[in-house]
Amino acid sequence: MQKPASPLLVPSRRDFIGTGLAAAGSIALPAGLALPAHAADEHPPIGTWPAGVAGDSVFIGISVPRTGTYAVQGEDELKGYQLAIEHINEGHPLIKAISPNTKKGVLGKQLKYGVADSAAKPNEAVQAQQRFITENKAIVITGGTSSAVAVALNKLAQREKVLFVCGISGSNDTTGKDCVRYGVRQNFYGQTAADAIGPQLLKVYGKNRKAAFMTPDYTYGHTVTKSVNDYLTKNGGWQMVTNQVSPLGAPDYSSYLTNIANSGAEILVNVNWGHDAVLSTQQAKRFGLLPKMKLVIPYQIPFLAREVGPDVTEGVYAATDFWWTLEDRFPLAKMFVETFEKKFGYKPEWGAENAYMEFALWAEAVEHAGTFYPPDVIKSYESPRKLNSLVGEVSWRPQDHQLIRPVIIVRGKKPSAMRNKEDYWEVVEVVPGAPLMQKPDAFGCNPGSYT
Q1: Which of 132, 186, 223, 340 has the smallest number of CB atoms closer than 10 Å to its CB?
Q2: Residue 365: is it exposed, middle or buried by C-beta count within 10 angstroms (0-12/13-18/19+)?
Q3: What residues does the Leucine-binding protein domain cover (predicted)?
Q4: CA atoms of 107 and 148, how far apart (whole Å)
Q5: What does the pLDDT look like over 222-265, one tens digit per residue?
């Protein structure tokens, strides 16, 4: 594969550099400016430290899918990152509520950033982030939407000793068998989704039901399907009568849906994500499977209801990270929804919320550490303390760097019950996070070394 052009030399839709929301160049150390004595003396260089913190700004590398089957979700995630950077740079009250020591910037340094289109492909994400690390001395990188990308960036971060704050990633493996010392994740994932939505499904649909699963063929799909099926079979006697596994970007689901139609399933559990979820759901309706079968979305897809229509998602249960009507319960959620909508013109989906929180919590961890030195920042994440978030109090689990946070259960509204054009879901329950999580070593997490 030909190496993509440097984002510093050829700004484009696929790659661009910014500070706040304005263009900016690299952050090389100005001539004659010496490093602070404590930065040079206390620790030997590691990763991009101390070169990446030598000036009055630090650089963040962002990779999200801007093309391909996850592009819509990637753009929403990017907006969350951009708003967080803007808020951190200006010392916005919402950021200060999450990271009280943040004034303007992180440790007084403004944030600059670059964006690359990962197209949900691990190789493209790794190549882009390697450029940001090498050329821009990125002090932190982020990306995801595809868990395959997140796992690949975990490995890059550990190798390069540059912190990776994970974007959207639903795979158990991200903080399980593929966890790393240099990676952290704040959003919910397969295990927590299953244990949150499982009781609702048993309550509404009862025990001993027959379910058909639709699963994307990579780490996210397989781990979410396994977690949901394990919960329902163990606790409710449900039977998986078929599991239809499809590749990312499949244009036609007719063969999979034919198998489901002939399986005797009563419930369709669609684990597909992004545009794949939209297409498979639309085609399931055209095949006559919906509403004959009950549809379940165990890992909610941002913008799904908008794309398939509220008549399809009416009564559908889903587990999610955030829904904008939580503004009625949490003051910080209200601040976020209002500022996001004012800037971007629509209610934020959970991808944007997840991205915003990842940067806000990173700022808090750095400020708590009092340094950008990576091992100290990591130890800051690993130091147990209660933190504010858009969905209440949260904390990091030191052993696997997974945030302990609630999972939100939503149910699709009737079109006639929608208060506005974006009022697709009602919040059924905010499920506390700690009881949903597996033991820290259950999925094989061994994070590795600090240096």
Answers
A1: 340
A2: buried
A3: 58-413
A4: 32
A5: 999 999 999 999 999 999 999 999 999 999 999 999 999 999 99
